Amino acid sequence: MDRRDFIRVTAAGILTAGVAEVAEPSRQRRPNIVLIYADDLGYGDLGCYGSAISTPNIDRLSREGMRFTHFYSASPVCSPSRAALMTGRYPSRVGIPSVLFPEDTYGLPLTEMTMAELVKSKQYQTMCLGKWHLGTIPESMPTNRGFDEFFGMPYSNDQAPSVLMSGMQVIEEPVQLDTLTERYTTEAVNFIRRCADSPFFLYLAHTFPHIPLAASPRFRGKSNLGLYADVIQELDWSTGEVLRCIQDCGLDQDTLVIFSSDNGPWFQGSSGGLRGRKGETWDGGMRMPMLARFPGQISRGSVFQGLATTMDLFPTVASLSGAALPEKPLDGVDIWPILSGEKPQVPRDVFIYMRGWDIQCARWGSWKLHVTRSNTPAWAPMPAEGLRNLPLPQPELYNMERDVDESYDVAAYNPGIVADIWNRIEALVATFPQAIQDTWRETLSLRVRNTPSGALPVEAE
After folding, report:
1. Quick one: three-class SS letters along the chain?
2. pLDDT in tens, the chain (461 residues)
3. Contact 169/175 with Cβ under 8 angstroms?
4. Which of 27, 125, 292, 459 has the most crowded CB, counting CB atoms within 10 A?
5. Cα–Cα distance for residue pair 261/9, rounded to 1 Å
6. Count of CB atoms within 10 A of residue 224's CB?
7. Catalytic pick from 133, 206, 210, 370?
8. What is the dihedral of CA 310, 37, 48, 236, to 10 degrees?
9. For 3-339, CATH number?
10. Is 48 a catalytic residue?
11. Spatial distance between the Cα atoms of 306 and 70, rounded to a whole number of angstroms
């Protein structure tokens, strides 16, 4: 392969090989899974993604594993993104289309299998640390959803009442936020040590950098870039402590460590040059950092430039743990063949971007099609007529390899691609609950009223 062919292949989303070959699996035990999940961390907030913030421990995951460049959350806000992560299904399928509040009397349905319940079928020890945000009614809490232990906050740190829980018991109110990351880290290290002799699943869902921000005294002011960067550096320290514990316990060759985030940055933080932020379906709201390290199984320094999503982690964990998949169809796909280097890519359906119940965009290969948009950005004051989702006068098409900030609509030059993606959206919508289908049809019925000068948009054949 010459240099031009190499560039062409990687641009098509094929795996860039690392400096080491991947060993054939020879594990004597099922692999441990450590999933570190930040809250509101932007695509551009880590050193390995171009940030000015020093994150050497998290960057180590990139150097010693795989970095993803087009990895997406299933939602631009907290609860839905976590519902998708835990189930491998779009959040609107599982009844969590928007943010949950402490007073809500529902949560992630018991009819949905969580990732923790998945691996419990293979006798994994399981712990949820940090933010849960999938319901506060007893049956929805972590210890009733497959986790043996829970230590953390049941929802976001800007919601009231501010409580820290151990299992089902409130142990602190209000929460002392400046020591929270340190306490999560201590609990994580202790759990790993306790479970060193059996396979375990640790879900470390950090409270930060969701606002209000807080850092411990030894990190406050350390970055010289403000409190937000201080918080990121403490998360980096925490990741280093977890990696050190895994190594000290002799578990490096038995442990997959994944690092990602739930959605884009809110008021502070970097989207890495992507357009949009938290709450929006521009890529800045939904494209996440994603790093995976598994010595001997994932090539060092490898980069995957194709499409992947948080929903893919559920079937991937099922594959690694040997657990049987639930009967309900998944929207994620097993990406272990990509992580292991067995295949350069895996088959997948079109990926849709949703805000609440509304389908707004779809990604297919390097193309992203915008079909609807909210009448106000997520960060703007609510208009008098309320939040509405409206069809665009004409679908907008962006090439996400050449136009990362979605600035140049090329739909008029690619009608066949527009029609193809539109038809894929229609086929996928037909598999969703009736409420989603009805919302989609109702939105499309507004097209004429939303079209300037009465000109009708081009319909997909």
Report:
1. CCHHHHHHHHHCCCCECCCCCCCCCCCCCCCEEEEEEECCCCCCCCHHHCCCCCCHHHHHHHHCCEEEEEEECCCCCHHHHHHHHHHCCCCCCCCCCCCCCCCCCCCCCCCCCCHHHHHHCCCCEEEEEECCCCCCCHHHCHHHCCCCEEEECCCCCCCCCCCEEECCEEEECCCCHHHHHHHHHHHHHHHHHHCCCCCEEEEEECCCCCCCCCCCCCCCCCCCCCHHHHHHHHHHHHHHHHHHHHHHCCCHHHEEEEEEECCCCCCCCCCCCCCCCCCCCCHHHHEEEEEEECCCCCCCCEEEEEEEEHHHHHHHHHHHHCCCCCCCCCCCCCCHHHHCCCCCCCCCCCEEEEECCEEEEEEECCEEEEEEEECCCCCCCCCCCCCCEEEEEEEEEEECCCCCCCCCCCHHHCHHHHHHHHHHHHHHHCCCCHHHHHHHHHHHCCCCCCCHHHCCCCCCC
2. 333 333 333 334 433 333 333 333 444 689 999 999 999 999 999 999 999 999 999 999 999 999 999 999 999 999 999 999 999 999 999 999 999 999 999 999 999 999 999 999 999 999 999 999 999 999 999 999 999 999 999 999 999 999 999 999 999 999 999 999 999 999 999 999 999 999 999 999 999 999 999 999 999 999 999 999 999 999 999 999 999 999 999 999 999 999 999 999 999 999 999 999 999 999 999 999 999 999 999 999 999 999 999 999 999 999 999 999 999 999 999 999 999 999 999 999 999 999 999 999 999 999 999 999 988 777 677 776 777 888 999 999 999 999 999 999 999 999 999 999 999 999 999 999 999 999 999 998 886 544 443 333 444 33
3. no
4. 292
5. 28
6. 9
7. 133
8. -170
9. 3.40.720.10
10. no
11. 6
Q: Which of 78, 195, 245, 361 is catalytic?
A: 78
Strands 358-364 and 367-374 come out as antiparallel
The answer to whether residue 206 is catalytic is no
Question: Domain segments of the chain: what residues?
Answer: 3-339, 351-454
Do 87 and 107 touch, CB atoms closer than 8 A?
A: no
Tell whether pTM > 0.70: yes
Q: What CATH code is assigned to 351-454?
A: 3.30.1120.10
